[in-house]
Amino acid sequence: QGAVGIERQLPWHTTLSVNYLDSRGVHLLLSRDINAPLPGTFAAGDPVYPYASANGTGQINQFESVGFFRQRQIMTSVNSRINRNISLFGNYTYNIAHSTEDSATSLVSNPYDISADYGNSNLDVHNRVFFGGSINSRWDVRLSPFLVYQSSRPYNITIQDDLIGDGILN
Question: What's the predicted TM-score (pTM) here?
């Protein structure tokens, strides 16, 4: 993980900061069905299973530390103390996150090529905004309004067909 940032004092008791963050993860846990039919054998109608049991089929899910992750963020913050009774602050974060898995128990869609799952992560919320303030009133009653916005998380589209023959629809 690496970060670089700059902070500047602006006029009117205002501070602005901008930070860039780059995160990478390797050897992340994911699950893979190691008994999925060998590539090309399921579509041909004669599936060949690497670990044939008495009935010839059956999932064998194995945890492996082969996943990877990358996230990049730009974070901007502003803080202003207008006077002794009013303070305002806000931040905006732009985020991009991609990975091969979202948890150690998420099964890959193609057990013979995990790079096919590299795409938007559950952490891939592109926009986050937060604005707030603090207003001290005449009778020592403090008002603290705030506004929060974030764009939606990515979603997966699944089909009803099992293209590989491992019984997993993802």
Answer: 0.74
Predicted confidence (pLDDT) per residue in 122-163, tens digit = 888 999 999 999 999 888 889 999 999 999 888 777 777 777
CB 23 within 8 A of CB 70: yes
Grouping H, G, I as helix, E, B as strand and the rest as coil, residue 168 is coil
Q: Which long-range contacts (CB under 8 A, 24 or more apart) does 154-158 make?
A: 154/119, 154/120, 154/121, 154/122, 154/124
Listed in sequence order, the DSSP H helices in 83-141 are none
| pLDDT at position 57 | 63
Cα(71)–Cα(25) distance, integer angstroms: 9
CA distance 164 to 43: 7
- Cα–Cα dist 21/94, whole Å: 10
CA end-to-end span of the chain: 30
As given in the structure block, the two tokens for residue 34 are 């190691």
